[in-house]
Amino acid sequence: TPTPAPTPTPTPAPTPTEVARPKAVVLSLDGARADYVDKFIADGTMPNLAKLAERGVRAEYARSVDPSLTAVAHASIATGVYPDKTGIVANTFRVPGQYIYQVVSGFEDVEWGAEPIWRTAMRAGLRTATVFWPGASVNFPDKLADYTVAYGASDAYSAQHVLSFAPASGWENAPPSFSPLKEASLRITKREALLAEVHILAVDTSDDQTENYDLFILDLDKRIGEESARLTEGKWAPLLVSDRLWSGAYFKITDPDMAHFTIFQSRVNYNRARPVELLREINRRFGFFPPSPDYYALEHGWISEEDYFEMAETQSRWMMDVATYVYTAYRPDLMFTWQGPVDECGHQFLMVDQRQWNYSPERAAEYADLYRRAHRLADESLGRLLEVLDLDEVALFVVSDHGMAPIHSYVNVNVALIQAGLMVLQDTVKYYIDTAKTKANAVTSGGAVHVYVNLKGRERGGSVPPEDYEEVQEEVVAVLSAITDPVDGKPVFQRILRR
Length: 499
Prior knowledge:
With 499 residues, the protein is an alpha+beta fold. It has twelve helices and 19 strands. Helices cover 28% and strands 22% of the residues. Helix 8 runs parallel beside helix 10 and helix 9 (341-349) runs antiparallel to helix 10. The longest helix is centred in the last third of the chain and has 28 residues, at 361-388.
């Protein structure tokens, strides 16, 4: 009997490979104005954005929301709805039910009234991340992405410290010095309470037969180690102030003369992120959140314009370190991230109008170079992001929330309301509002102002009966309409909108 032929074995079907899901990344360059971006693309300042625009598509016309402010616009970009739906109407504003003088932050204090797109994506099973996106706060769990890194928080304000040195004692692991070691200390306070005492050891590293202190070691307990900050003239040095919050500050010598030695201390900042494992990893890998460029310190002469730019540079690069880490470590399908140097430098260095305070052609040229460097810095961050993205698989959107215009004059709307009798200050406490007598109060953000009627039944301590609302509203409109530029006589307000 012939042997039967073997039963043929079916050829196994190839295992289908998982089709890679398309990904999307949104990068916001805060304050990037279209005409400046065009100019800096054309002259080579922003080569990465130029290449991206050449490869992809570009909107010929785009308009921000109204008012075009950072908190307002980023909420609308994330949700796709206007400010009347997000509830974020300014960077700083009022919400009903509080006293007329109470304000909230559009970044931290109010939950968006609409769902951000990353929450929609999460419901569809996609992995999401937000990294420093304005308004994406850890305060509101219902709005968090899978991986959320919020903008850092501050634990203490910046300060300028003038130090007095004395012979050093009690230091461990002190380095050799060609002059007797000296020490001083500074106190970092929070609402007048001591947050940390920083000890400073002065070291002379130059064998030049002169007393020449050129190295300053900052430490919390006089036990010098890797965690100690080493400060030299012209350089910044970070120091961890609290290992509980993992908070710290940056320091810089602003006057090296030992007779009146001066150190600038930045704000004390710490990271915020969710889940907590991500927070711990950021603290471990990257350290505490660097301070934003300090306009208060610049305007008070504590730091120079170059110092201000260096603060923007340090923060921008650190933030992109974190953003690229989050993307490569967690591979989100959708990620939103943000960069601020163009906006931060625009606030201080956009000097293009001769009516601006302290204007001179020389200063305008100096500031124009700093503003250009801010755009180059933003483009550098874009380039670093592009290094970790495969544009064949990832759609990258580069957006901006608003442009920027030069400011040459200030208008104090509340002074006008006081002069019109619509706002009244207390007699006993200077600058405190008398809520029982105040009918209206103004809260400004940039070039926009919201004027609130102190309505009974809506505001705590409201003074205006509902039947008088429209009358007070018209009084406010009349006051604002009457404000004119004392130089050219033109109206100050381009638009006055009634609710």
